[in-house]
Amino acid sequence: MKTRSHLTARSSRAWGVAGVLLILLCWQISAMFLGPLLMASPIETARAIPRLMMSGHFLNDAGASLLRVAIGVSVGCSIGFTLGILAAHSPRLRGLLEPLRWLLMAIPPVVVVVLAMLWFGLGSGMVIFMTVLMMVPGMYVNTVKGMLQVDRDLIEMSHVYRFGWWRRLRHLYLPSLTAPLTAALLIACCGGVRLVVMAEVLGAESGAGYALANARSTFDSAELYAWVVLILGLVAAIEFVLLQPLQRRLGQWREDSHA
Q1: Distance from C-alpha of 27 to C-alpha of 242, rounded to nearest angstrom
Q2: CA distance readout (Å), 137 to 128, 150, 182
Q3: Transmembrane stretches, by residue range (predicted)?
């Protein structure tokens, strides 16, 4: 069984590498047809990355975007998680929040950016506000669904044995919330990067999105695609270096809690 699983994992990684090579091939062919003014080739982009990273504005723009992503995602997910816990215990609160949840999930992010620009002007306040607002509903929905799927008999048993709120949260609710919350956190972090960059492109005075907009306005396609590759690298690092190990760790903790 282990050998078969190992072979399946190796086959999946091999196909993943093949997919990356296919993307690079399509990218190269598209660059040959469109020309260097509209699309830099993979080689030109690779040469532009170290030049970009050694420029004077790179650290400022990258640091501003990372700070906005960290604040927006952490605050938005915290609010969504807290509201989800409260709404799962109160049908009245859940009904009260449902129209707002629907509104935030239905409204296009670009509309929120425009409104935030009117309210907060250009800068970090607008970007962080928009990111927080877009992060809340996803975490809220996953938290409520996870809480409502907890076995009612186990909840009643925890009350019979007089479990305190911390013991009930640690041994009953959090293990049940591990799977939906880790999935929601993965979506939130990757989506948060996209939202921050989009908001910076439309109305910020610093950040990776601001640098993208500058590169577009000067037709510097090599720098533009270099920023795109670096942003993709950030998303990959968040997923594979941070979130997937966290998901495995929480899955192991869930099994230990049920044991």
Answers
A1: 28
A2: 15, 20, 15
A3: 69-88, 100-120, 126-144, 172-197, 224-243
